[in-house]
Amino acid sequence: MTLNNNADIEMYKEILNEIAEGVIIYNNTGVISWCNNAANLIFSKKVKSIIGENIEGVLANHIFEKEYDVKKKWLDSADASVVFIKKLENNGHRELNNVPVRRASHNFEDIIGHNQSLCDIKILAKRAAFTQSPVLIYGETGTGKELFAQSIHNASCRAKSPFVAINCAAIPENLLEGILFGTVKGAYTEAVDRPGLFEQASDGTLFLDEINSMSLLLQAKLLRVLQEKKIRRVGGMTDIEVNPRIISSVNMKPLEAIEKGLLRSDLFYRLGVVCLGIPPLRERTDDLPYLIDFFIKKVSTKLAKGHYTAANDLLRVFQSYNWPGNVRQLEHALECAITLISSKETEITIEHIPEYMKVTSTITIKEEPLTRKFNLNPLDSEIEKVEKNKIITVLEDTKGNISLAARLMNISRQSLHYRMKKHQIRVSR
User: Fold this and answer.
1) Contacts 24+ apart (CB under 8 A), 144-147
2) What is the pLDDT of residues 293-308, one digit of tens each?
3) CB of 197 closer than 8 Å to CB of 245
4) What is the CATH T-level fold of the domain 282-360, as seen in this structure?
5) Which value, to the nearest 10 degrees, does the dihedral of the CA atoms of residues 296, 301, 307, 311 take?
6) Is pLDDT of 106 > 60?
7) Does the structural domain 97-279 have CATH classification 3.30.1330.10?
8) d(Cα 115, Cα 104) in Å, to the nearest integer?
């Protein structure tokens, strides 16, 4: 950098005041003559001003290697030098220890519901907790996959060891490998020796959430680690033995993820020794009264509000709603309602739920001739007839393929078997 006169220096000062890095200019005797706004901000908590101070003394007293990257440069023809100060957490390889990991705070008692499918999954999950086998949990977003993962950990013999969880979809691909396996100093610019999550969870449980969002290349590396029970830090030359219990999750059916090229089949067979499919809320609407009561109490306590009940019309609307966001969406809908309800009201109605739910849950009532209102079959009977005919039609179209028929009707295979038994429908091959 060549500065020909004072005008050049002033121009550069204006530019440097706009950047995020700290910049300090000092003369050949080490005395600081100027610093930009960012540098002022760095040192303002320590001293009122660094102007006139010696640069070496300032850096020695106030800059720490783990917090800042400090680079010095001589300014040609200006009889001055400059220091650039950059906070490490702002660079492309941000501090890996700052990546949030969750801890296990839930148990099986926290899984609310009496639906038979849910209860069956809980029984299987409790059995799995007493083994060391990998568990793969699948289900739509918001069904409670991490709730099951934490419960399995807390019921296992590893309960006193760390539970380390990470959402693979929330971490940039270029950082995820270093976060999982750790790094060594020199692996990349400003890399330091740091253990990865596999080492941190070595005697406990590692929960890999939404593993289908991980690149196939990294999935291959993960498979090798699971097979050999050894990791090698990014940039490292030695293997480190690790032994965490792996629980993973995908937000769709595993075979669907494999078909779409999002999950390696060999990794699935390794991780899915025990597979737990969490039913969506629309398939367990019989749990709605329990869930509504639970979340009303939870949210009321959280917001320091009064005691509320749910109106009958609210329950009817909730039972007919599709719940794309599942249990998590239900909790947020009730939080919205309790936030907006007036202090004089004690009953939550459809007037209090989010506006988008009112649109999708509106029931249009049409006037019919009086003759249509007499000699009607009971509603339950009509519904049963429609359901039976629908199942028969789909099974015929799929040539008796029960798995495909269940998928087309957007219900579980177990639910389809139950309905076939109820309607005495048999598939003849």
Assistant:
1) 144/111, 144/278, 144/326, 144/327, 144/328, 145/209, 145/249, 145/251, 145/278, 146/102, 146/207, 146/209, 146/249, 147/106, 147/110, 147/111
2) 999 999 998 888 888 9
3) no
4) Helicase, Ruva Protein; domain 3 (1.10.8)
5) -10
6) yes
7) no
8) 24
